[in-house]
Amino acid sequence: MTPILRRPGRLAAGAVLAVGALSVLRGLLTSGGDLPTLLATHGHTLLVVVGFVAVGELARIRMPSGRETAPLSSASAMSAVFLGQIAGEPTLDIDSGLVVLVVTFGLVLAAAARRSRHRATGTPELAARVVGVSVAAVIARDWGSPTLWELQGLPSASPGVVVLGMGLAAAVGLVTELVLVAALRAERQQTPWSAAVRDEVGEAAPLTLAVLVTGPMVALLAPVLGLLSLPVALVPLALAYTAVRQYIRNRETNRQLIATLSHLTEHGGYTPEHHAERVAQLSVRVGRVLGLGERALRDLEYAALLHDLGQISLLDPIPDGATVLAAPADQRAIAQEGGRIIRRAEIFDDVAAYVEGQTTPYRMVRELGEEVPMAARIIKCANAFDDLSGGTSDPGRVSAAMERIHLGLGYEYDPDVVDALTRVVEDGSVGRVGDRPLVAR
Known about the structure:
Strand content: under 5%
Radius of gyration: 26 Å
Order of helices and strands: HHHEEHHHHHHHHHHHHHHHHHH
Helix content: 55-70%
Strand order of the largest sheet: 1-2
Number of domains: 2
Shape: elongated
C-alpha cells in the first residue's frame, strides 16, 4: 500500500473569512462615514475598548488539548456590544456596524503584534470572533423597536428583562463564534464536527460562562463607574482565567509524572527510545479522528504512555520491545502486569483498563461481544504500527507496517480504528492540535 497524501480542505476557513470580511464591509458601508465623529466624541471610550480587545487577544491561554482561546478579548468585544450610558463620558449611541469596526481594529492591532513576534495569528479564528460580535451587536443594537440597547435607558424597562436579553444576545454571539471555530478545527484536523463543537464548549466552559456575563455587567456598571466598569467587570473572568491556568499546570504536572514513569522501560532496555511517546501521540490523533472527548483523550494519552509498563517484569526483554511480535499469552501477561501496577494509583482505573484491554483481538468484540474500550483498540493499532515501522517515517517501512495491519483487519484490529490510523498516517495534519510536544524531552 502506497500512502496517498490528502490535504485538508479550506472550505470552512474560506467561508468564515468571507463572512467576517462581509461583516467589516457592512460596517464600513453603513457607518464608515461616522468614524470621524465617533473618534471626536468617544475617543477615550474607544481607546479603552480597543486596548482591552487587543491586550486580551495577546493574553491567549493554551488549553490542555493544545487549543488556544482568548477569553479576555472575547469578553471585551462583547462589552462593546452593550455599552451605552457611561458616567463622565457621552452615551455610546452607535449602531452594530461601528461596534464591529471598533472590535476589528483591536483584533488587527493584536494580530500585527503577534506577527511581529513571529507567532501565528489565526486569521480565520479572528474572523469568527468578528462574526460572533456582529451577530450579537445586530441583536442588541439594530433589532426590534425599541432595541435591547435602547431598553436599558428606559426607566419603564425591567432591569431583569434587559439583563436577560443581553445575556441571550451574548450567548447567541458566543455560540456563533464557537461553532465557527469548531468548524475550522474539524476541517483542519479532519475530525467530527460534533466532537469539535463539544470540545470547544466543554473544555473552557468556566471561561465561556464568565465571558457571557461580562458584557451585561459592563452595561450595568458603566452609568455608575464609567470606563472603570470594564476592568471591574473583567475581575470574575480574570479569576476564572487564573483557575483554569492552575488546572492546566496541574494537568501538565500529571503528564510529566506519567511521562517519567513511561521512561522506565526505555532506560531498562525493554523498549526503543521514545516508543511510548510516539504511540501516545499517534493514539491521541487517532482518538480525535474518531471523536473521543477531551477527558477520554487524556486517559488515552496516559494509557498509551504506559502501555509497555508491564515489560519491566520480564526476565528476558522482547527483541526491540516489539510486543506485536510476541506470543498472545505473553502480550496478555505484560498488559495485565502493567494494569496491576497502574491500579495502585486509584485515580487511574480507566487508564489501567485501557492498558489491560490493548491485547484483546477485535474478533472477541465482533464475535463474542466482549467489552473492550475504544481507547484500548486504538492503543493496539498505534502500538502495532510503531513496532512494525520501527518508529521511522521511511515510506517503505510505513507502507509495510500498514499492509501488515490491514492483514489483521476485522480479526486483530478494529476496522474503524484502522481507517482513522490510515488517515493520520497519510496526512500529518489530521488529528493534530498545535505544535506542542507531548512531553518534555
